[in-house]
C-alpha cells in the first residue's frame, strides 16, 4: 500500500508533513490522556511515535463517539475514515495521515482497528451487557484490540505474548468502567454486568435516574476490580516476551491503571460521587517501579500462566494479530453498522 499524497498541499509533502502530523498526535495525547502519555515516555522512539499515532487516532475517534451529539454519525464516519486509511488515501487530518503511515509500515491487520470500530458501534446503539463475559466482549474491542495493535508495533506476533497483552487491555478497561460508574450513569450508560446488579437487588432504571453509591453498586464495582486485578497479574507473564526496551512502558501502563483501581478501592468503591484520580507524584513512582522491575522479569523460571490460552472474548484478536483472521468485515460488524445506517436514515 502506498499512501497517496495527491490531495495534500505541495509544501506540506514528505517528511515535513510527517513531522507536523506527529507533533499534532503528541499534543492530542498530552492533553487528552495523561496516563498513556506518561507511560509512552518510556518507550523507545521507534515504537513511541507509531504508538502515539495509533493512540491519537483511537482517542480522537473515541471522543467523537463518546462526547459528540451524533454518535451514529461519528461511528459511520470512523468506518469511512478506516476505509480511506486502508486504501492508502487517508482523510486530510494529522491523526489519519499518521495512522495510515503506521498501517503501511507495520502491516497492521485491518481486523484490529475494525474491532475497535465495532466496540464504538455498540456504544452508539446503547448496548448493555448481561454478564461479565459480555462486558469482556466489549472490553476486547475498545481496549484489548489496542493491546494487540501495540504488540504489532513492537513486532511481536507470538500467540502467548498477544494473549497476555489482551489480558492487560481487558484489565485496563474494567478499571475504566469501575472508575466511571457515576459519570456513565449521568450520561444514561451502564457497563456493569446486569446479572451482578440484579443479584445485589439494584434497580438499573432507578440507579440511572438518580445515581447514588448504594451498597449493591459498591459491591459490584469491587467484583469488577477484583477480576481486573487477576487479569493484571496474568498479563505480567507476557512482559518478558516483549523487546527489553519496551517492557518499562508496558509495566508502567499496568501500574498506573491498577493504581486508578486502587484509588477507587480507597474511596470505598464509590465512583459515583467522585472520580478516582492519580497525582503526578504517584505516576512518577509507578514509572520508576516499572523501570526497576523490567530489568529483573526475565530472571527465574517462566510462569506457566504465560502459556494459558487467550480469554475466549479476545481469541479473535490474537488470531487477527497473527495474520490468521478471515479477510473482510465480520458479519457481526456488518450487522451493527447496518443498524446504524438505518438509524442515520431515520428508518429505525
Point out poorly predicted stretches. 1-13
Mind telling me the CATH superfamily name?
Farnesyl Diphosphate Synthase
Give the C-level CATH assignment: Mainly Alpha
CATH architecture tag: Orthogonal Bundle
Number of helices in the DSSP assignment = 16
Strand percentage lies at under 5%
Radius of gyration: 20 Å
What's the rounded overall pLDDT mean?
Answer: 88
What's the domain count?
Answer: 1
Distance between the termini: 37 Å
**Helical residue percent band:** 55-70%
Structural class: mainly alpha
Instruction: Give the biggest beta sheet.
Output: none
| CATH topology label | Farnesyl Diphosphate Synthase
The outline comes out as globular
Secondary structure: number of strands: 0
Order of helices and strands: HHHHHHHHHHHHHHHH
Annotation keywords:
single chain; 348 residues; mainly alpha; Farnesyl Diphosphate Synthase; 16 helices; 66% helix; 0% strand; globular; disordered N terminus; squalene synthase [NAD(P)H] activity; geranylgeranyl diphosphate synthase activity; carotenoid biosynthesis; manganese; Phytoene synthase
Provide a quick synopsis of the model.
This protein is mainly α and 348 residues long. It has 16 helices and no strands.
Amino acid at each position: 500500500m502506498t499512501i497517496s499524497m495527491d490531495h495534500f498541499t505541495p509544501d506540506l509533502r514528505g517528511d515535513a508533513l510527517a513531522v507536523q502530523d506527529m507533533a499534532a498526535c503528541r499534543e492530542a495525547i498530552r492533553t487528552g490522556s495523561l496516563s498513556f502519555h506518561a507511560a509512552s515516555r518510556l518507550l523507545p522512539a521507534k515504537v513511541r511515535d507509531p504508538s502515539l499515532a495509533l493512540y491519537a487516532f483511537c482517542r480522537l475517534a473515541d471522543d467523537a463517539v463518546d462526547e459528540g451529539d451524533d454518535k451514529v454519525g461519528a461511528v459511520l464516519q470512523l468506518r469511512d475514515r478506516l476505509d480511506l486509511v486502508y486504501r492508502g488515501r487517508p482523510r486530510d487530518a494529522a491523526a489519519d495521515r499518521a495512522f495510515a503511515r503506521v498501517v503501511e509500515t507495520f502491516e497492521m491487520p485491518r481486523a484490529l482497528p475494525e474491532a475497535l470500530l465495532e466496540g464504538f458501534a455498540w456504544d452508539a446503539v446503547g448496548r448493555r451487557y448481561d454478564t461479565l463475559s459480555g462486558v469482556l466482549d466489549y472490553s476486547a474491542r475498545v481496549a484489548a484490540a489496542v493491546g494487540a495493535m501495540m504488540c504489532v508495533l513492537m513486532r511481536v506476533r507470538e500467540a502467548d505474548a498477544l494473549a497476555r497483552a489482551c489480558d492487560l487491555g481487558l484489565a485496563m478497561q474494567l478499571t475504566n468502567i469501575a472508575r466511571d460508574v457515576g459519570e456513565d450513569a449521568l450520561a444514561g450508560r451502564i457497563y456493569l454486568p446486569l446479572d451482578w446488579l440484579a443479584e445485589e437487588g439494584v434497580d438499573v432504571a432507578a440507579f440511572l435516574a438518580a445515581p447514588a453509591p448504594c451498597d449493591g453498586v459498591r459491591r459490584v464495582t469491587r467484583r469488577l476490580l477484583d477480576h481486573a486485578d487477576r487479569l493484571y497479574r496474568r498479563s505480567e507473564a507476557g512482559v518478558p516476551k516483549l523487546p527489553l526496551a519496551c517492557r518499562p512502558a508496558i509495566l508502567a501502563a499496568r501500574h498506573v491503571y491498577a493504581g486508578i483501581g486502587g484509588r477507587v478501592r480507597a474511596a470505598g468503591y464509590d465512583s459515583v460521587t467522585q472520580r478516582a484520580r492519580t497525582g503526578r507524584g504517584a505516576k512518577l513512582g509507578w514509572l520508576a517501579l516499572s523501570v526497576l522491575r523490567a530489568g529483573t522479569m526475565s530472571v527465574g523460571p517462566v510462569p506457566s500462566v504465560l502459556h494459558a490460552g487467550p480469554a475466549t472474548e479476545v481469541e479473535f484478536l490474537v488470531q487477527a494479530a497473527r495474520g490468521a483472521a478471515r479477510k473482510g468485515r465480520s458479519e457481526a460488524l456488518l450487522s451493527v453498522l447496518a443498524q446504524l445506517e438505518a438509524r442515520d436514515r431515520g428508518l429505525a
